[in-house]
Design a protein that fits this description.
The chain has 2 helices and 6 strands, in the order βββαβαββ. The protein is α+β, with helices and mostly antiparallel strands. A 6-stranded mixed beta sheet has the order 1-2-3-6-4-5, with helices on one face. A hairpin with a 2-residue loop joins strand 2 and strand 3. Pfam families: Ribonuc_L-PSP.
């Protein structure tokens, strides 16, 4: 089964040689999302909570383009520039998942992220998960 490229205008367009997501054999691999508002192209950096919410809304749009929801997510990777922001990021992130069925996850502090944002999140989702 060939890979299917997933794109949506409801999430930021790729700015390099990558796609928003790739679906193959029922598994969706998303690219990392940062807090770019898809309509304006502007970064949402009002607060770490607002930034995280925009990231999650971008991810929601990518999942929807593949006919999936956060229920389908089995693994997330969160990259943050300052571990002191973890609790606020986690608070917003947690609003998108049910604790009982939340995905596996790692959270890693990194030196820098694209456009020097504070948080980037990628996901793996499975159809019929």
């Amino acid at each position: 089964m060939p890979k299917q490229i997933i794109t949506t205008p409801n999430a930021p367009a790729p700015i390099g040689p990558y796609n928003q997501a790739v679906l193959i054999n029922g598994t969706l691999y998303t690219s990392g999302q940062i807090a770019i508002h898809p309509k304006t192209g502007e970064l949402v950096l009002d607060s770490i909570k607002a930034e995280t919410q925009q990231v999650m809304e971008n991810m929601k749009a990518v999942l929807a383009a593949a006919n999936m929801t956060f229920e389908n997510v089995v693994k997330t990777s969160i990259f943050i520039s300052d571990m002191h922001n973890f609790s606020q990021i986690n608070e917003v992130y947690g609003q998108y998942f049910d604790d009982a069925s939340a995905p596996a996850r790692e959270t890693v502090e990194v030196a820098n992220l694209p456009k020097f944002v504070n948080v980037e999140i990628s996901m793996i989702a499975i159809q019929d998960a």
